[in-house]
Amino acid sequence: MGSSIVYWGARSIKRSPGGQNLGLQSKGYNFHWYGQRGMKWKNLLPSVEQNLRCYPPPQILIIHLGSNDLGLIKGKELIEQIRLDIMRLHVLLPNLSLVWTEILPRRYWHLAENQVAINSTRKRVNAAVRNIFKEELNHGLVICHPNIKAQERDLFRHDGVHVSDVGNDVFLNNFQGALELFASSDR
Description:
There is one protein chain. The chain has 5 helices and 3 strands, in the order ααβαβαβα. The chain has a single domain (4-184), classed as Rossmann fold. The chain is globular, with a radius of gyration of 16 Å. A 3-stranded parallel beta sheet has the order 1-2-3, sandwiched between helices. The protein has helices spanning 4-13, 44-54, 75-92, 115-136, 165-184; strands at 60-63, 97-101, 140-143. The longest helix has 22 residues, at 115-136. The protein is mainly α. 43% of the residues lie in helices and 7% in strands.
């Protein structure tokens, strides 16, 4: 569940060899992709509740959100919203395994007066959420994307915000690799 990165990822995996389930169906994964362009963190819980009316509760919820909030709210406020909503999800769906996929770098941040400062905020939010998952959740996973760097132009579309087809493939490959490890571990 997430913003345009998930939206475009869902569209592109239909043409990939692993299909919608990233080739992980043999490990028991059956994905329902929910990507909404422009989605912000405040939309997470309403979207989860809406999906619960249509689908059975998931075993795993993968969240890729937060980038569209940067520049609109302070990093500390976003971190607190994330912490509270993760705990709410844990109470609402106690058997749910949560997966956070880090906020990706961008070549250009809309609404940012200072591109360097907003990238620093992105890094602080990612570090704080990694810590929340490590310290406060019994069963969760953080997917990092060290191979997606803003300096690598071919990973981004011309707008500098969205990942290109190549960047999307790297993003989805990171997903698949992390989930394969997660599936083989004791959740």
